[in-house]
Write a structure and sequence with these properties.
By secondary structure, this protein is an all-alpha fold. About 55% of the residues lie in helices and about 0% in strands. The protein has 16 helices and two strands. A two-stranded antiparallel ribbon has the order 1-2. A hairpin with a 5-residue loop joins β1 and β2. The chain is elongated and about 190 Å long. The termini are far apart.
């Protein structure tokens, strides 16, 4: 039995030893294979690194694999998500390459904020921004009825919020390393403004522009159209930096983290300056970078609007001048063909009769023109003068009565009696007769009243 126990113990020991040996061998094989794979990948990396250094690319970063083409989606219910959505999704659902929120914000800033100091640097009210975002999500345009610049900072805040919340930023993570490489190694000549770039005549031949154009061509059409529209607007805005205190670099500081966020694992201090330089160069050279013709809305600059307005005003003035000349020539032709009037010709003056017999409302002057009778300044404004019917009746009676001799033998005049003159006998009627005749005259209508009554 002891011998059997010893044999069993030796057999178990041998089995354990064999198992350990096999395990060690397997682990060694796996380690060798893994090390070989690591060495192979390391060799590939070093080879690629050397080739990039020879081509003057940054040795710290490697280009990422090509961007895969996204599959189109069919929007079935409602509008796509605005804040937090995608440019391509919005285009597939609506057919519009530029979303309403971008177009409305830029239009409003163009109307009221092109000379607003601190635009995009001063934040607006968070309550107003949230309210405006909710209106855009419901398909409304809250800026359509804006009439002043009181909420212009909130408008700029909505525009930055839209680009910050995009599902994929304009300068995506796939292209981040390539943009950092060209910004560091192929920086354009130093210019601080669009005007300085134009004065130095720097354009399409800049190497930064050529390489940036190659990267942009890999984007989708809505992506390119929106980026071109935004940077054309920022380019126009930077030309009012004296009023707004927002030159291209200040605008780049405001939009850098929004348009080109730094991926995780990158050095924030180093790449922040590169991102700001990238946005500034895109702003200054946007016309050269987006040189290819792509169908989509274009931003109309303020100076182009002013030029078009001046041309329209000049055309209107020329048209009005031509119409005035034609009218003048027409009048001269009519005067030439019109027969000359007689010098002794006098216009017919129509007299308007009042309730006073033998008295007209208008008086005729020596120059044969009609003037209104002058008002008595001493009379109150509500004073109304009644017709002198008794005096007119007396004048008629005197005209019909033959002249008689007075007691002194003098002849009476048929005109009006002077104050204090005695009335001859038989001429003045009794008060009852005069009162009766006055009542009859007052009952006559103005149409029946003539000089004979």
């Amino acid at each position: 039995r002891e011998k059997d126990d010893l044999k069993k113990t030796e057999t178990e020991g041998m089995n354990i030893r064999l198992g350990l040996e096999e395990l060690i061998i397997e682990n060694n094989k796996r380690l060798i294979i893994t090390n070989n794979s690591i060495e192979q990948e390391e060799a590939k990396y070093q080879n690629l690194k050397k080739s990039l250094v020879v081509q003057q690319f940054c040795s710290e970063t490697l280009p990422r694999p090509g961007v895969k083409k996204r599959r189109s989606k069919i929007q079935t219910i409602g509008l796509p998500k605005i804040f937090g959505g995608s440019l391509d999704d919005y285009y597939e659902a609506t057919g519009e390459k530029i979303p309403l929120v971008i177009e409305s914000c830029i239009r409003t800033i163009k109307m009221f904020g092109m000379r607003h100091q601190g635009i995009f640097r001063i934040t607006g009210s968070h309550v107003d921004i949230n309210k405006f975002e909710g209106a855009f999500e419901n398909g409304e345009d809250p800026f359509a009825c804006m009439v002043d610049e009181n909420q212009i900072n909130s408008v700029s805040g909505v525009l930055k919020s839209y680009f910050r919340k995009l599902n994929e930023p304009l300068f995506s993570e796939e292209c981040f390393d390539q943009f950092m490489n060209i910004t560091r190694n192929f920086a354009p000549p130093h210019v601080v403004s669009v005007k300085q770039k134009i004065d130095k005549n720097i354009g399409e031949n800049v190497e930064f522009v050529l390489k940036a154009r190659d990267i942009v061509r890999q984007w989708s059409e809505p992506h390119i159209v929106v980026t071109r529209y935004l940077f054309s607007f920022l380019n126009d805005l930077s030309q009012y930096s004296e009023e707004t205190q927002m030159d291209p670099y200040n605008i780049a500081i405001c939009f850098g983290p929004t348009l080109c966020p730094i991926p995780e694992g990158k050095d924030l201090v180093q790449h922040t300056n590169l991102v700001n330089d990238l946005i500034k160069n895109f702003l200054i050279f946007c016309d050269d970078i987006f040189h290819d013709e792509i169908e989509g809305p274009l931003y109309i600059r303020t100076e182009d609007l002013d030029t078009g307005h001046d041309d329209q005003v000049q055309e209107d003035e020329t048209k009005e001048a031509n119409e005035a000349d034609s009218l003048t020539e027409k009048k001269q032709t009519e005067n030439a063909t019109k027969p000359q009037e007689d010098e002794d010709y006098e216009p017919i003056v129509t007299k308007m009769m009042s309730f006073k017999s033998n008295r007209s409302l208008w008086e005729q002057r020596e120059n044969k023109t009609l003037e209104r009778p002058k008002k008595n300044i001493m009379q109150p404004p509500n004073h109304v003068t009644a017709p002198d019917l008794l005096q007119d009746l007396l004048d008629k009676q005197l005209a019909k009565t033959p002249p008689n001799r007075s007691r002194s033998g003098s002849t009476l005049s048929t005109g009006r009696m002077s104050p204090g003159q005695d009335v001859p006998d038989g001429i003045m009627a009794s008060p009852e007769e005069l009162l009766e005749k006055a009542k009859q005259i007052t009952q006559v209508t103005p149409e029946e009243l003539t000089d004979d009554k």
